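Blinded run. Sample ID left blank on purpose so nobody reads anything into the name before looking at the predicted structure. Input follows.
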Amino acid sequence: MILRQNRSATRPPFALLASASLLLLVPGASAAQTPPAATASPAVDYATLAGLVEQSPLIIDATIRSAAKIKGAEAGGLAPGFTRFYVEADVGTLVRGTSAIPQRVGWVVDAGPDWRGRAPNLKKRRVLAFARPVAGRPDQVQLVTPDAQRDWTPAVESLARRIAQEFTARDAPPVITGVRGAFHVPGALPGEGETQIFLTTKDDRPAALSILRRPGEEPRWSVALSEIIDDAAEAPRRDTLLWYRLACALPAALPERATASLEPGDAQQAQADYRLVLDQLGPCRNGTEATSINAVGGPA
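Blinded prediction complete.
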């Protein structure tokens, strides 16, 4: 059982996440290629970008030099309206990666229609490619998804860097894989009580949700990533890695086995408290971002 830490009678402490990163420049890249500061409201959904970063050993800032349409059998499986291209691009910066790559690389991308409904003109377009190396072909990379190429903007570049930092932080939150169990303890007063929900993680690190209810107060919930649960902790902010791990992985309801040992009233309260957490986390993705590489929009 995860224990509760009490620094004071009512509000114990809780440690928040820190972050660290490895950002590499390709040899020969100039200082002028450093992206500007991010805008206040990135024009990309955090969870969508985090999903790409999580899969990508390489994140490449590059300018497309040539783009050839792929037709016939090699273009099978395209989404409606998409066109498959083989592109070659001049690398500016390696946003994420552990070693340098050639100054020019190629990859295959499925591109959605442009603002006119036509196949886009990709030549000279600056993009971020979320990719993995191709064994034995240093001049080739493979996108982690068919459309894992994003139009470059300062905001998208900055957000990709921040997410990469969060993933490589020494104390990055674990990958959540499910719910192990739950219990509820009613308080002495009507409306008072505590629910703890224990989560399973990919690397078996501890993780738990704690929901506290006190008469006359709004319910409070927090996350523990150690053997100590701390009342003073706050719920994770949206568009952070801990929020992403929870919002995009938690099931829509507590599994029956998680509350099977509880009294019916306690099980019902645990389910209600779990729904509170899901409601406050909000949806994993905001649904406003197009999946096309032309999400930034406008004439190419």
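Unblinding after everyone has recorded impressions. The CA atoms of residues 20 and 169 lie 5 Å apart.
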